């Protein structure tokens, strides 16, 4: 009886840099943030309200549009900043911005209490909070380098 040797090898586990993890997490957060709003267009009556110039209880004005764009720009810029800021500044920015986004996301869920699509919004917010928790964890546990010891000459 011949034994067959397996030619399959284990996949190499490569260390993913913290910057890449943070940028990927902010990108995921941004997609969730956008798609919750896009999918909400399918809720009956939403498009009709938009056509008459109302989003939820807010009139669609230039101020509303600037505010919405500014809020969406935050995770977009965090993708870039996570990759380009010096490590210490990136860590601090991620900790601060993600910490501010947590109550903001939770506030959005509270605003949907009793709504007919409450479960949809709660799922969206829960997924956003999971990604924000990952961002906080990645930034908080950012590896530290050990100082190199140089030999004194002389």
Provide a concise account of the structure shown:
This protein has helices at residues 18-40, 46-51, 62-84, 87-110, 118-140; strands at 54-55, 58-59. It is mainly alpha-helical. The longest helix is centred in the middle third of the chain and has 24 residues, at 87-110.
> What's the count of strands?
2
Number of domains: 1
Major sheet attributes: 2 strands, antiparallel
Rounded average pLDDT: 87
Which structural category fits the helices and strands? mainly alpha
Shape: extended
Distance N to C terminus: 70 Å
Number of helices: 5
What share of the residues lie within helices?
A: 55-70%
**Structural Rg:** 22 Å
Task: Give a quick set of tags describing it.
extended; 154 residues; mainly alpha; 64% helix; two-stranded antiparallel sheet; 2 strands
Describe the structure.
- This protein is mainly α.
- The protein has one domain (29-140).
- Helices cover 64% and strands 3% of the residues.
- The protein has helices spanning 18-40, 46-51, 62-84, 87-110, 118-140, and strands at 54-55, 58-59.
- A two-stranded antiparallel sheet has the order 1-2.
- Strand 1 and strand 2 form a beta hairpin.
- Helix 1 runs antiparallel to helix 5 (118-140).
- The protein is extended, with a radius of gyration of 22 Å.
- The termini are far apart.
